Amino acid sequence: MEKKRKNSKNQEAKEQNNKSLFVRLGIIAAFVVVAIIICTMAFKLGYGLFQNDAMEESPGTQVFVTIPEDASKSEVAELLKYNGLIDDESMFKLRCIVYDAKFNAGTYTLNTSMTTEEILDELRYPVVEEEETTTAAPAEGEGEEAAQE
Q1: Of the candidates 121, 116, 110, 125, the residue with the CA atom closest to the CA atom of residue 93
Q2: What is the pLDDT of residue 37?
């Protein structure tokens, strides 16, 4: 009878140890899964932030984009996404923060073969509108006076 009690106590202790072992293994497995998920997300974030891919191969498509006065990073990202120049607005906004991007109002000629970095560089500088220059012929007598001086 004494042996049966000892055997049953030993068996209960083994079962308890097995349960404890399964709980520990379950916790370790959960930590491993969470670590894999975090690493995957970190990789995607880093790749998205530092990739420098264009939307299309060269020569791409020429696109005219008008940046309004005091446009926010979100508005600019939305415009660029709508025009097929970027694929992820969130990553573009994050890049704007990292690179301290500033935008100037105006109409820009961009291309779908431009990288995000090239687009940011283009939008950083104000649009210079070309002034029409006309060449007028000198009035009678002006040409002679200029030649004499």
Answers
A1: 116
A2: 92
